[in-house]
């Protein structure tokens, strides 16, 4: 009978952690930060495979690391959220619930399987104001952290976080927040420590727009992204992308009730997070 | 979370539910033998009209249970997603469940795949869901939807607004121009037949939809007409290039009042 070498549990955990961290550090980074109008999710991504996704009405997802692993986590999140929203109500799907499910799953994978997941994910839930936004960082070993308004993931996340920590402002406008995100991502990875300037083709950008009723997730891509990155603040809100693959809805002065989303009027009472959406959200009424 | 949440699996929410929570799916519950048609409220007339810009769908507000009016303000026309509409006729409870499930089905696919289903894909999916209810339908709990939407990638550029009807066995039929379902559909369709022409504007089609519902209510007790005293008017929605829009209370009130005023002069329309 072959002799098994003894490895202490501490050693096993350390090896797995190191393995996961190395895997994550190889990939490009992503940042998530709050701004005045919602939550901005930005990933450095030159491929068409996405790192940022919609999970539910107010909840977005960003991930770094191994694609097949975070893609299966993303699907799982959408499935969980949809099952819960369907069997209870759309308002009963929360970011904390999803963060809990992810931390359990990743924790179990880390301790029970040979190979840990090489991923780090963020669950972002947009609230009525920057103070009520929730950002959860869930790492490869299942630990979960509640982040204060901004977070960076991936290789050299520390350096990126430093830039964000110095300059993040929850009251900033979208173009300012986007510039900060792009500069933070570009602050690492240059040759000999030089900074890089990232353009629209290198970034995957989405927002969770706190002013929208219903589905808050909007991708910003193409011309709208280029214009925003060039610092032009004249981009009208309606041009800021749309739900996946759908052409942006043109401006309308009539209230629209749709399964997808509607623009919330800027009235004081509409800032109440407990206000039930009058959109048809699949509640059958 | 269980394995079936994380596996590659399917992009379909209903298919996923068969693994995760089959009890949430309609059409899987054993029914006691015998006809059960009169145990639950029935939703009635829905009309849809294709226009130059998309489609218009309208539904009256009445639900009946035998000789009783179960509800005067039920809403039977809903957005299926941001470019399509669904209206339901038949057993209201099952219809509403079908509609909710269909809404989640479309949104789920969109989120998982990052792209929308084609309009035909959506209609086929809905046909499958109606087919799943065949057992209940044979015992009197039938539900038949009407599906219409704006086609984002039409094969024929002239046909951007498309209407699909279904039968209880899950048969899917694309309709030309206009269609109606429900107990008053016979009268609504006859009214539309006289007025419909190709290339209607959205405003004209809205007016015709309300007229057709008025005609249905005129001859069918299960269809409710405009209720001027309570200000309950049909639900009318449009699906165009700018997405789905539900007529506001003010908009539909204006149209309904015009229609009623017209009938004061000429009761036959």
TrEMBL record, chain A:
Activity regulation as described: The formation of the proteasomal ATPase ARC-20S proteasome complex, likely via the docking of the C-termini of ARC into the intersubunit pockets in the alpha-rings, may trigger opening of the gate for substrate entry. Interconversion between the open-gate and close-gate conformations leads to a dynamic regulation of the 20S proteasome proteolysis activity.
Keyword vocabulary terms for this entry: Cytoplasm, Hydrolase, Proteasome
Segments passing through the bilayer: none
Ranges annotated as biased composition (Low complexity): 267-277
Span list, region Disordered: 231-285
Coiled-coil portions: none
Main location per the UniProt record: cytoplasm
Compartments it resides in: Cytoplasm
Pathway(s) where this gene product acts: Protein degradation; proteasomal Pup-dependent pathway
SUPFAM superfamilies: N-terminal nucleophile aminohydrolases (Ntn hydrolases)
CDD domains: proteasome_protease_HslV
Record InterPro entries: Ntn_hydrolases_N, Proteasome_alpha, Proteasome_alpha-type, Proteasome_asu_bac, Proteasome_sua/b
Gene3D superfamilies reported for this sequence: Glutamine Phosphoribosylpyrophosphate, subunit 1, domain 1
Pfam family, one: Proteasome
GO cellular component terms, semicolon-separated: proteasome complex
Gene Ontology MF: a single term: hydrolase activity
Membership in a protein family: Belongs to the peptidase T1A family.
Self-association state and partner proteins as the record states: The 20S proteasome core is composed of 14 alpha and 14 beta subunits that assemble into four stacked heptameric rings, resulting in a barrel-shaped structure. The two inner rings, each composed of seven catalytic beta subunits, are sandwiched by two outer rings, each composed of seven alpha subunits. The catalytic chamber with the active sites is on the inside of the barrel. Has a gated structure, the ends of the cylinder being occluded by the N-termini of the alpha-subunits. Is capped by the proteasome-associated ATPase, ARC.
NCBIfam families given in the database record: 20S_bact_alpha
Role this protein plays: Component of the proteasome core, a large protease complex with broad specificity involved in protein degradation.
Protein name: Proteasome subunit alpha
Organism: Paractinoplanes lichenicola
């Amino acid at each position: 009978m072959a002799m098994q070498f003894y490895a202490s549990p501490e050693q096993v955990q350390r090896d797995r952690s190191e393995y996961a961290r190395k895997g994550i550090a190889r990939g490009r980074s992503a940042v998530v930060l709050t701004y005045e109008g919602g939550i901005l999710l930005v990933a450095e991504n030159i491929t068409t495979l996405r790192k940022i996704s919609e999970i539910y009405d107010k909840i977005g997802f960003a991930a770094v690391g191994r694609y097949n692993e975070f893609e299966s986590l993303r699907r799982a999140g959408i499935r969980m959220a949809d099952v819960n929203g369907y069997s209870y109500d759309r308002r009963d799907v929360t970011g904390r619930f999803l963060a809990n499910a992810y931390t359990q799953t990743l924790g179990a994978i880390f301790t029970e399987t040979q190979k840990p997941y090489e991923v780090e994910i963020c669950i972002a839930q947009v609230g009525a104001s920057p103070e009520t936004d929730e950002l959860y960082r869930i790492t490869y070993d299942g630990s979960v952290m509640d982040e204060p308004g901004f977070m960076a993931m991936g290789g050299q996340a520390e350096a990126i976080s430093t830039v964000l920590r110095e300059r993040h402002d929850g009251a900033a406008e979208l173009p300012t927040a986007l510039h900060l995100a792009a500069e933070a991502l570009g602050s690492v990875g240059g040759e000999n420590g030089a900074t890089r300037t990232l353009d629209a083709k290198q970034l995957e950008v989405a927002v969770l727009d706190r002013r929208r009723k219903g589905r808050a997730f909007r991708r910003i891509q193409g011309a709208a992204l280029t214009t925003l990155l060039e610092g032009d603040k004249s981009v009208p809100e309606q041009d800021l992308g749309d739900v996946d693959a759908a052409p942006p809805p043109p401006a309308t002065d009539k209230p629209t009730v749709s399964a997808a989303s509607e623009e919330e009027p800027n009235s004081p009472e509409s800032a109440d997070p407990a206000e039930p959406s009058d959109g048809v959200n699949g509640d059958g009424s | 979370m269980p394995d079936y949440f994380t596996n590659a699996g399917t992009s379909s929410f209903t298919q996923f539910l068969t693994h995760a929570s089959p009890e949430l799916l309609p059409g899987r519950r054993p029914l006691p033998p015998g006809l059960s048609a009169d145990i639950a409220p029935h939703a009635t007339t829905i009309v849809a009209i294709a226009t130059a810009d998309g489609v218009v769908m309208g539904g009256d507000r009445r639900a009946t249970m035998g000789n009783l009016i179960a509800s005067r303000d039920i809403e039977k026309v809903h957005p299926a997603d941001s470019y399509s509409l669904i209206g339901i006729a038949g057993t209201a409870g099952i219809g509403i469940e079908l509609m909710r499930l269909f809404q989640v089905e479309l949104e789920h696919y969109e989120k998982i795949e990052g792209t929308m289903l084609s309009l035909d894909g959506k209609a086929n999916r809905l046909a499958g869901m109606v087919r799943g209810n065949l057992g209940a339908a044979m015992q009197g709990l039938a539900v038949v939807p009407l599906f219409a939407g704006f086609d984002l990638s039409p094969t024929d550029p002239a046909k951007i607004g498309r209407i699909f009807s279904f039968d209880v066995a899950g048969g899917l039929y694309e309709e030309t121009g206009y269609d109606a379902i429900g107990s008053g559909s016979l009268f609504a369709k006859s009214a539309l037949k006289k007025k419909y022409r190709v290339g209607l504007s959205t405003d004209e089609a809205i007016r015709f939809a309300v007229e057709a519902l008025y005609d249905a209510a005129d001859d069918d007790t299960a269809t409710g007409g405009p209720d001027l005293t309570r200000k309950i008017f049909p639900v009318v929605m449009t699906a165009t290039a700018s997405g789905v829009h539900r007529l506001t209370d003010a908009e539909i009130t204006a149209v309904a009042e015009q229609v009623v005023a017209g009938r004061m002069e000429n009761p036959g329309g």
